[in-house]
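Write out the 3D structure for:
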Amino acid sequence: MATDTTTLSAAEKKAIKERAAELKASQKKEKLEQAVLAKIAEMPEDEQKLARQIHDIVTEEAPHLTARTWYGMPAYADANGKIVVFFQGASKFDARYSTLGFDEAAHLDEGSMWPTSWALTTLTKADAERVRELVRRAVA
């Protein structure tokens, strides 16, 4: 009995569908990140520097998060689409400092009270290490 080599098995069809979904998600993730980088490029120079540093830290420490815009600002979401961490430039609300914030999906709980945002004017080496630590904790 000859086998038909032009017909795909159920497992092969499933693998093709899964790969197509992966590619689609990857392309979507790339487009979302491009939108974030475009928003960063629109910021005043000092905010751009901070936002790029935060972007680099988050993408290095939590590459599984998806960069996307959230209220016109850079944000990073988990697999469920929930925002974990975000950056808000000072000029967005005419504030004197930018904000690094963590939303409900972040795992930063410490007892019954903990900080969810930090004011940023610059990012020293020590500050950058603290941000790295917070991002690692937030996604743990």
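The chain has one domain: 10-139.
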